[in-house]
Amino acid sequence: MATVTGGARVAGMTKWEYLTAPVLVHATKQILDNFGQDGWELVQVVPGPTGNENVVAYFKRPVA
User: Fold this and answer.
1) Is residue 9 part of a domain?
2) According to a count of CB atoms within 10 Å of the terminal CB, is the N or C end of the chain lower?
3) pTM to 2 decimals?
4) Which run of H or E residues covers position 28?
């Protein structure tokens, strides 16, 4: 496990980029497959801010 000392990052630590995206419930599989093909890993799904049928998905992938 990498540690942080005095605010400095340890060499070899994985760096991540993140993406938040709305997901239409009626097209969930297609949308998630598309993000997966681009290297995004689904981290979490939460209800959308308006309370409708859509959800918000949080993704991450290593920075190239």
Assistant:
1) no
2) N
3) 0.74
4) helix 28-37
